[in-house]
Design brief:
Helix 6 packs antiparallel against helix 7 and helix 6 packs parallel to helix 8. This protein has one domain. The protein has 381 residues and is an all-alpha fold. The protein has 20 helices and no strands. The N and C termini lie far apart (53 Å). This is SLC13 family permease.
Length: 381
């Protein structure tokens, strides 16, 4: 029994800590009907709907099909690396950073394994590190790119265009930095691959086009969710439509929803709601955060990851723009600064356990460099 608990804690560390904090806070502020007012059901509903729809689109092979079409146009290793990284950067804006990594990191590993041993060894860690950074930074541009944006955007009651304007300079800077890094890495690449060899990399896999009926159905639901994000449709309508469609179309998709994320949000809502009922703690935390929202969000993200940091800090400041910038940039840094980064780490460890140490070192150095450069952008802007 103890072993099962420890295994669960290791697997779901953030959820476990969030649940423990929520339970401990209940001894100070006893459970009551006001607990329901703590929970942001709109955010939870949207997260559930988007995760379900993206799981459906992934299952019908839409992302694999698009990726293969795009990559088949590559004519050099550098162009392949650029496309693999940009797929994560731009798709994360729509399908979230974690789904982008789940989709495109395995694809990158498959492609790179077809290259020569020397080229594979050179590129595999560099590419996956950059894909991870690209997914974490690309996702910051849109309200649906990552969970903290979806939550803070709704909390701030800002328009989608306002969030895009806020994050656009940092997204452009991130894209430029990624392209510069690839250019530098490609310049030091050992050996080269001919155009004929490149074309052979895509001659084996011929992904079928996704079923049009299913594709249209999921895209309509996705559009409805976007209307909810834009505050045009009530979130309960999208929730009912998604539940109904998936139940009759493919109820197995319910198993692919990240319920641990939804439960983590719920636990943190309760914990923060209770903290706000404690005047002494409330005033203390506000005094620390006030005027330092961005830096506090970045530092907090390094320890508890950016999603919990966004929920925690949003209870003690109204400067949501600073929190959006801080929690997005704060996804850089440590391996847990953005929980999506663990996805790439697991794929590398599964591929070859001896690569874990090298990957961790390369990942940390690259993240620190990107974090410092984007911090300079914050000061300039």
């Amino acid at each position: 029994m103890l072993r099962k608990i420890l295994t669960f804690f290791q697997k779901e560390t953030v959820l476990s800590i969030s649940a423990i904090l929520a339970i401990l806070s209940m001894f100070i502020v006893h459970p009551s009907g006001k607990y329901f007012s703590y929970i942001d059901f709109r955010t939870l509903s949207l997260l559930f709907c988007l995760m379900s729809i993206v799981a459906g689109l992934s299952e019908i092979g839409l992302f694999d099909y698009l990726a293969e079409k795009i990559l088949s146009r590559a004519n050099s290793i550098k162009s392949i690396i650029v496309l693999l990284v940009l797929l994560c950067f731009f798709f994360s804006m729509i399908i979230t950073n974690d789904v982008a990594l789940i989709t495109f990191v395995p694809l990158a590993i498959i492609i790179l394994k077809k290259m020569s041993e020397k080229q594979k060894n050179y590129w595999i860690l560099r590419t996956v590190v950059m894909q991870t950074i690209a997914a974490n930074l690309g996702s910051m541009l849109t309200p649906i790119g990552n969970p903290q944006n979806l939550y803070l955007y709704a909390r701030a009651n800002m328009s989608a265009l306002a969030l895009i304007r806020l994050m656009l300079p940092y997204s452009i800077a991130a894209l430029v930095l990624l392209l510069v890094w690839i250019q530098i890495a490609a310049h030091r690449e050992p050996g080269s691959t001919t155009e004929n060899h490149i074309s052979e990399l895509f001659s084996i896999h011929k992904t079928k086009a996704p079923n049009q009926t299913s594709l249209i159905g999921y895209l309509i639901l996705f559009l409805i969710c976007l209307l909810v994000v834009a505050h045009i449709i009530d979130y309960r309508i999208s929730f009912i439509l998604v539940i109904g469609y998936i139940f009759f179309k493919n109820w197995h998709l319910f198993k692919k929803v990240d319920y641990s994320l939804l439960l983590t949000f719920t636990a943190l809502f309760i914990f923060i709601g209770n903290l706000k009922c404690i005047p002494q703690f409330n005033h203390f935390l506000i005094s620390i955060i006030d005027g330092h929202e961005t830096l506090t969000a970045i530092l907090s993200s390094q320890i508890i990851s950016n999603v919990p940091a966004a929920i925690l800090l949003s209870g003690f400041t109204k400067n949501y723009s600073a929190l959006i910038i801080g929690t997005n940039i704060g996804g850089l840094g440590t391996l847990i600064a953005s929980m999506a980064s663990l996805i790439s780490f697991k794929y590398i460890a599964k591929e070859k356990t001896t690569l874990r140490g090298k990957y961790f070192m390369m990942f940390t150095i690259a993240n620190i460099v990107f974090l410092i450069l984007l911090l300079l952008c914050i000061n300039l802007l």
